[in-house]
Here is the input.
Amino acid sequence: MNNRMTGKTGGIRNSIVTLLSPSKTTSKKAAAGKKSPPHKSAAKAEERRRQIAEAAYYIAQRRGFEAGHELDDWLLAEIEVELRENIQ
Here is the structure.
């Protein structure tokens, strides 16, 4: 394992896993009822990826595009987008 895997990024990953994990109170039946048709879910996934990429860009911009933090930027952007979706 390299330093990026064991350092600060590990904490970020743990935070993401916690935020993105389904609630233990969510039943499988309720989750199954939320499925979208394949074409809509693919479009939704692409839009989410675009939002994450844009957020990661702005995170990188705020710290001056210093190299070596791309994964951190992406993971933080995932959290940001997830939080925005949960608020709406």
